[in-house]
Amino acid sequence: MFRKIIFLLTLFLSTSALFANSLIHHRISVKVDPARHYLEAVDQITIPSAQVKPLIYFLINSNLNVTSETPAVTLKLDKSGVKAADVGMDQEDFKLSSEITQNKYALTFEGEIKGDVSFTLKFSGTIHYPIKQMGEEYARGFSQTPGIIDEKGVYLAGSTYWVPRFDDELISFELTAIVPESWSVVSQGKRTLDDVKDGFRFIRW
């Protein structure tokens, strides 16, 4: 029986090619380990020239450790324990996202900046916010958690802050998920790969 991983990035991610050249682009490869409530990801990020600044900030879930894999890009923790803002679909999501704290990082670039800037970040850590019943309603599965990685299922969304967030604007992305072979994955966009190798399933959008 297939168990399911759900990536819901709709709120601040876009796969549309129409505005791709003007959007920050994420090329993400993420491996999910449900038994350990753990993810590890490599994110190749391209910032268009119009948005490049000498100092750029982003937010990410404070449970995730982040490193820069690009020598010319310096990563520094600017502030820890920042409260998450509402990126959910309704008021209940807002209440749930308040459980999450973020770390604020500063990126600086060596040398003269010309044109678009590309660099790679690695991040990993535990995501496991228990499912909760809100108010008098019955629990509605994953809609009652801002994010969870568990053997019963996985839900990662905008409210999880598991992807570096530079601003509130739309961004474009390519996502490759590496999951246990018996799992399936749901996300938005067009699926371009679904392959099994060495006990893992590789799925790309």
Describe this structure in words.
- It contains one helix and 15 strands, in the order βββββββαββββββββ.
- The protein has 205 residues and is mainly beta.
- The chain has one domain (3-204): Sandwich (Immunoglobulin-like).
- Strands 2, 3, 4, 6, 9, 12, 14 and 15 form an eight-stranded mixed sheet that branches. Strands 10-11-1-13 form a four-stranded mixed sheet, with no helix packed on it.
- Strand 14 and strand 15 form a beta hairpin.
- Mean pLDDT is 80; it is low at 9-18, 86-94 and 138-142.
Q: State the CATH superfamily name.
A: tricorn interacting facor f3 domain
Oligomeric composition of the shown chains: single chain
The CATH topology? Immunoglobulin-like
How much is the radius of gyration in Å?
A: 17 Å
- Which class do the helix and strand fractions yield? mainly beta
Which architecture would the CATH scheme give at its second level? Sandwich
Secondary-structure element order, N to C: EEEEEEEHEEEEEEEE
Low-confidence stretches: 9-18, 86-94, 138-142
* Coarse shape: globular
Mean pLDDT: 80
Strand content: over 45%
What is the top-level CATH class?
A: Mainly Beta
Continuous helix count: 1
Q: What is the number of beta strands?
A: 15
> In percent, how helical is the residue content?
under 10%
Largest sheet report: 8 strands, mixed
Distance between the termini: 23 Å
